[in-house]
Amino acid sequence: MLGVLCYLKREGQTLMIHRNRKPGDVHQGKWNTLGGKMESGETPEECAIREVFEESGLGIRNPRLRGVITFPEFADEQDWLVFVFTCTEFTGELLKECPEGFIHWVNDADLPSLPLWEGDHIFMKWLDSERFWSARFEYDSRGLKSHSVVFHG
User: Fold this and answer.
1) Which pLDDT score is estimated for 29?
2) Do the beta carbons of residue 32 and residue 14 sit within 8 Å?
3) Per-residue pLDDT tens for 55-98?
4) What are the residue ranges spanned by the domains of the chain?
5) What gap in Å lies between CA 42 and CA 109, rounded to an integer?
6) C-beta of residue 102 within 8 angstroms of C-beta of residue 20
7) If one looks up domain 2-152 in CATH, what number appears?
8) CA 32/CA 50 separation, integer angstroms
């Protein structure tokens, strides 16, 4: 499965979704960034633009690819390959509601205290790196089992 994550940033804040609206959501109760599954024929950039608009109502420009993550058999499903972007250029008005949860601008200093996936606490520190990275995060039913990363450039 191919997917994207796109971290929108502004003045020391990151746009996050508190995933609490979809019954049976594997992310239930966690805070995530915007993103989702790529559609057939879609580039990672096109997917990031579409997913951010669908989930937030914001139109983004110039998403910057920061890294890729492999999640082997995530949530007992198939492997995921996820393209991770950041973006600081966007227009529009934030939606009042999102089908997946509540959208909030969160102060970057508060991100470590949120209930994120364990791996997010690790790779979010790499989002501002000038080096491209490729990582692997392996989870089992108890949580993060292992991770590795290669930095390029």
Assistant:
1) 82
2) no
3) 999 999 999 999 999 999 876 678 999 999 999 999 999 998 78
4) 2-152
5) 34
6) yes
7) 3.90.79.10
8) 17
Report d(CA 69, CA 138) in Å as an integer. 10
Q: Over 90: is that where the pLDDT of 142 sits?
A: no
Q: Could you tell me the pTM of the whole model?
A: 0.94
Looking at residue 148, its amino acid is S
Length of the chain: 153
In 2-117, which residue ranges form alpha helices assigned H by DSSP? 44-56
127, 108 contact by CB (below 8 A): no
Give whole-number Cα distances, 128 to 9, 27, 79, 131, 144, in Å.
11, 24, 26, 9, 23
Residue showing tokens 């499903």: 77
- Alpha helical stretches, state H, 57-126: 118-123
Structure confidence by residue, pLDDT tens digits, 43-58: 999 999 999 999 999 9
